[in-house]
Amino acid sequence: MTTPLDSFQHDWKAFEQAHVWHPYAAMPAAVPPVAIRSAQGARLKLEDGRELIDGMSSWWAAIHGYNHPVLNTAIRSQLEQMSHVMFGGLTHRPAAELAALLVELTPTALDQVFFADSGSVAVEVAIKMALQYWQAKGSTERVRLLTVRGGYHGDTFGAMAVCDPVTGMHHLFAHALPKHYFAPAPGCPFSAAWDEGCITGFRALLQAHHHQIAAVILEPIVQGAGGMRFYHPEYLRQVRALCDEYGVLLIFDEIATGFGRTGELFAADHATVSPDITCVGKALTGGYMSLAATLTTRKISARISQDGTPFMHGPTFMANPLACAVATASIKLLLASPWRSRVAAIESRFRRGLEGCRGLPGVHDVRSLGAIGVIEFSDPLEMRWIQPLLVEKGVWLRPFGRLLYAMPPFIISDEELERIITVMSEVTHLVSHNHA
Fold first, then answer.
1. Phi, psi of 179 (to 5 degrees)
2. Pick the catalytic residue: 54, 117, 155, 253?
3. Residues 37-64: pLDDT tens digits?
4. Fewer beta carbons below 10 Å: N end or C end of the chain?
5. CA–CA separation, 62 vs 322, rounded Å?
6. DSSP code of 400?
């Protein structure tokens, strides 16, 4: 009788495809996953000996590339001390050092740090903070959130409830999710002149329902997995002013945009706006381990904690020492590097290299901001042939919906980046030809 371990030993890739469920995929996956043996710099080495240039930074997290000696050393050094210890009733230096660094880099008022496992959980924590804050103030009617359409905040239930309910990937669960308020997506492009009409719908909803709203939550400047749209910094300034006017908390989801991706250390820096709560993750550890954090103000933590009331959340692997140590090393590595000039150069190359795709049949828009390059099509892309074609051309990209986009590591070479841009252009011309 053949056992699962026998099957694995005989052909591990066949076993994997038959038994391991991948994200946002059917079972088995329509397009078999690509088997990776190792990774170095901006390159993924496949089991069959080929190499791919990574244009995704492992879902936007590996900003320093792979197998970086500084980050490897941080992991090894911490491993010699301890790999993990529960954070309930115990603490350790790596968590405190990372918290100090985050408090130093974020707006002054954000000086309370809650560590979590992932970006989605950080959003759950932020939502809980807002709700528990108003409960502590006796405003029990404030149980709704206000956000904008086109957003994405994660895959857990609280986070799903503030993702776009119509065009988002979580529409299947709409009947089971809490109901919140959705303003029109910001319609004011990042580089365009500000149009005061852009904030009208948001203002009307907040004015009408502010007595029910605990917090506004949005992704500053870049709506990521919801569509890779870049909007005007003035929108954030207007939202901050309106939240102040109506006494509503403001949550920024910086999970995808934090740590330099947009050309500023945090996307909110484009508008010099400070939220009441902010979430960071993804690039926090340089892509080495899953870790996220939710930062808030002493005003909020003091209100929640009045009379010794605890905040009701506690992940098992909260503040994992390995993750904290490598996060601190990653942030210091970023700050010591010429990251601004690197990201600016990536943006410039995307802008120059992708512009030739604008106006092609089937292409809706071409845009770039920081280390993000996007080609948006009029119709959804056919992953069954596009994904294998990208691999054949030696590039790893993960298109979704109508988007072909790249968010490469900041350390990518000029030649590697040019190859990504060339392949994006070649695939776009193929899609355009088929569209025509």
1. -95, 125
2. 253
3. 999 999 999 999 999 999 999 999 999 9
4. N
5. 16
6. B
Active-site annotation holder among 66, 152, 181, 288 = 152
Report pLDDT for 322.
98
Contact 75, 288 (CB under 8 A): yes
Give catalytic status of residue 24 as yes or no. Answer: yes
- For residue 39, give the amino acid letter: A
Contacts of 401 (CB under 8 A, 6+ apart): 227, 380, 381
Domain coordinates in residue numbering, the chain: 34-67+339-435, 72-336
Two structure tokens written together for 350:
């995307």
- Pick from 177, 173, 187: nearest CA to 229: 187
84 residue type, one letter: H
- Cα–Cα distance, 273 to 294 (Å, whole number): 17
CB 77 within 8 A of CB 322: no
Is there a catalytic annotation at residue 282? yes
Tell me phi and psi for residue 372, to 5 degrees: -135, 120
What is the architecture, at CATH level 2, of domain 72-336? Answer: 3-Layer(aba) Sandwich (3.40)
Please give the Cα distance from 23 to 321 (Å, whole number). 27
Catalytic hit among 117, 155, 235, 282: 282
Say how far apart CA 370 and CA 381 lie, in whole Å. Answer: 24
pLDDT in tens, 396-418: 999 999 999 999 999 999 999 99
CB 292 within 8 A of CB 118: yes
Contacts of 128 (CB under 8 A, 6+ apart): 158, 311, 312, 313
Q: Is 112 exposed, middle or buried (0-12, 13-18, 19+ CB in 10 A)?
A: buried
Instruction: Give residue 2's pLDDT band: very low, low, confident or very high (50, 70, 90).
Output: confident
Nearest to 147 by CA among 228, 234, 77, 205: 205
Kindly name the residue from 6, 13, 24, 137 that is annotated as catalytic.
24
User: How many Cα atoms sit within 13 Å of 433 on the Cβ side?
Assistant: 6
CATH superfamily of 34-67+339-435: Aspartate Aminotransferase, domain 1 (3.90.1150.10)
β-partners of residue 113 are: 295
Those residues with Cβ within 8 angstroms of residue 10's Cβ, 6 or more apart along the chain or in another chain: none
User: Which letter does DSSP use for residue 268 in this model?
Assistant: G
